[in-house]
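This section describes the prediction task in plain terms. A model, or a person checking by hand, is given the sequence of a single protein chain and must write out its three-dimensional structure as a string of tokens. No templates, partner chains or ligands are provided. The sample shown here is typical of the held-out split.
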Amino acid sequence: RAGEASLAFPGVPDAVAQGWPPKFQLSDLAACPADSLGGQFHRLIVENKFDLEVLDRDVLGLSKLRPPLDYLNARALQCHDLWHIVGGYHTTALHEVAISGFQLSQFGHNYSAQFLAVVTTKSAILRPEAIGLLLEIILTGWRHGRTTPSLLGIDWPGIWASPTDTVRQRLGVDTYRSPVPPDLVE
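The expected answer:
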């Protein structure tokens, strides 16, 4: 059911039809100009000691999932940190929540929905005074995703060398506007 629901989102059927996404290569990103999307992505990964695809899709066995969940989950792991850059999300706790709202609204990502449900429940129990702020962060991320053209099927390696602002303009992506400082909980 989650896969069928995702197929109703704009851009999802076309992205899924492209087939299993090839892995990004750190060496390709390292070769990009410093002010480019690829250069900025490379710095984010290397300076934070992140994995290029968040989690290893092969170890997780994502290729064994039924379509389109196989593609959607591999692409989410591959592009999550990239979407931070393109969408203007910081790598802070609140912006992880916001980008989950973004991913949910972009393609109905069921793991984003589950993550948001757990975070909201935990907040309601442990920090009920913060629930209004948390819901606002989720909603602003959701709205940002709904007003942004689908980013799922973009040929990212084809635009690595372009400046990030140029990529945003070309794709029609406005940067996320957080209602509070991104590092409020840090």
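For orientation: The chain has a mean pLDDT of 95.
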